[in-house]
């Protein structure tokens, strides 16, 4: 019965898709009719492919599961299980299936693996004596057929509510691809919503928080949008545009991401963006796509319609002059935004622009600090601080500002202003800070921390503490001599645990973070599972522990090798 309903549903969607998908931007076509939906539920999304998330473009579809866990998850096509992952954050539990047609499907945040996979995972956890495992499998180990139940949906890892995260990847390149381009469409007759436009006066300078910008409110409906207070905008010199837009579909009220943004001037395309496919090592370039300083200040996502020169992500199919337009001909121009969802629903917004009369000579760029080039290795050194930013980590040239600030109480160095948080780093850079001589023998406990509380780690190297930092900001040296905290939740020394389903303890570490933990019962390693959201560590009794007296022992270490130990006798 469910299957019949499902076939009808699939037919309906494929007809629907053929009607509406003709006009969307894509570099190639993808095979349709192979993959089924991973759940038996009517497909509804809590998140779409390419949706804007903190520090990443969303890499798949988030299928809603009625705010519950435990729905059967099906293999979307024949194939073999190529990878099984258990991790503390991220997907929590994930299955990767490699299919014979060149694609790999990924299922994340699942609650439980099907029995054959659950056994493989558990055996590997006991073999490695670790909760977190990443198991690569050969094509001979676990084969699956389309429709097989491979797992039950969940809320594991860094998920913010029960759902199934689903991806389709190119097996050869590992690029992730919009699953809706494979015919796994979501019913959608609702065009995108546009809420604001941005105008950036670049004028030959690199983009930064100092770029003069203006945001204009937008209103409209049913695909037709206009400025809330209509005006003819006067512009001169090199201008970049931006837009704030979201999309809803017919099956849920979530504000998801749009599929494409196109910018035209006088009918000619100057810029396109489309969430078709991307490589994971480029996903941080979302911070080059959005107005990153504006997101930090106001928490809104303005999507820039011009491309920063250091962004390498494959989401910009077409652009002229990186989308930057020069206004200098004393004429009226017509700017048009065309925003689409993946079903092909369109929203448009038109602006009337009066161009300046004279060619504007760009401000000659005068950095007040040190000029860092986005495409070069950049170094900064004095007698207290060293830093190196390798090519590929800046999205644009940077006026790098350094300063020495007063020392904080308890610090083992002054605070150093290493530019500011408004310029994003793609991956990381190396930072060395010289500690005060009072640090004495504690160099192995030293870490570099930011004034916002982020610990970047630290190792002692030739008179400096070195860290690999992920953002700019104000940094200083601090010691971590405090061992991790262990709080037993349902166990106490001499306690009766004969009716308990599991042992629960909460673990945490204030500065450098928990590095490892190890639980033992009567001297034998046992599997302790660590929950990302609650930070609760648990051992589930599974019949291995006989009635009588036992000794439980837990050791926890932080990243600076401070150790805590908890022991208790209990009765089963
Ligand atoms: Zn997701």
Number of helices: 4
Helicity, as a percent range: under 10%
Rg from alpha-carbon coordinates: 27 Å
Overall residue-averaged pLDDT value: 93
Task: Tell me the total number of β-strands.
Answer: 48
Approximate shape: flat
Give the N-to-C terminal Cα separation: 47 Å
Poorly predicted tracts of residues: 1-22
Strand % is: 35-45%
- Biggest sheet, open or closed, and with what strands and sense? 13 strands, mixed
Structural class: mainly beta
- Which hetero compounds are present in the coordinates? zinc ion
Which short descriptors sum up this protein?
binds zinc ion; 13-stranded mixed sheet; flat; mainly beta
Write up what this structure looks like.
With 572 residues, the chain is mostly beta strands. Strands 15, 16, 17, 18, 19, 20, 21, 22, 24, 25, 26, 27 and 28 form a 13-stranded mixed β-sheet that branches. Strands 1, 4, 6, 7, 8, 10, 11, 13, 14 and 23 form a ten-stranded antiparallel β-sheet that branches. A hairpin with a 2-residue loop joins strand 2 (52-53) and strand 3 (56-57). The radius of gyration is 27 Å and the shape is flat. Zinc ion binds at residues 47, 58, 60, 62, 165.
Short description:
With 572 residues, this protein is mainly β.
Write the layout of secondary structure elements.
Elements: H1 2-20, E1 45-47, E2 52-53, E3 56-57, E4 61-64, E5 72-74, E6 79-86, E7 93-98, E8 103-108, E9 112-113, H2 115-128, E10 133-136, E11 143-144, E12 149-152, E13 163-170, E14 176-177, E15 193-201, E16 213-221, E17 224-227, E18 232-235, E19 237-249, E20 252-256, E21 260-265, E22 268-274, E23 277-278, H3 286-289, H4 292-298, E24 303-304, E25 318-319, E26 325-327, E27 332-340, E28 346-355, E29 370-372, E30 378-381, E31 385-389, E32 398-400, E33 402-405, E34 415-418, E35 429-433, E36 446-450, E37 459-461, E38 464-469, E39 473-479, E40 485-488, E41 495-496, E42 502-508, E43 514-521, E44 524-526, E45 529-530, E46 536-540, E47 549-558, E48 563-571
Parallel strand pairs: 17-28, 18-28, 41-48
Antiparallel strand pairs: 1-4, 2-3, 4-13, 5-12, 6-7, 6-10, 6-11, 7-8, 8-13, 9-12, 13-14, 14-23, 15-16, 15-19, 16-17, 19-20, 19-24, 19-26, 21-22, 21-27, 22-25, 27-28, 29-32, 30-31, 31-35, 33-34, 34-39, 35-38, 36-39, 37-38, 40-42, 42-46, 43-44, 43-47, 45-46, 47-48
The structure holds zinc ion.
Zinc ion is lined by residues 47, 58, 60, 62, 165.
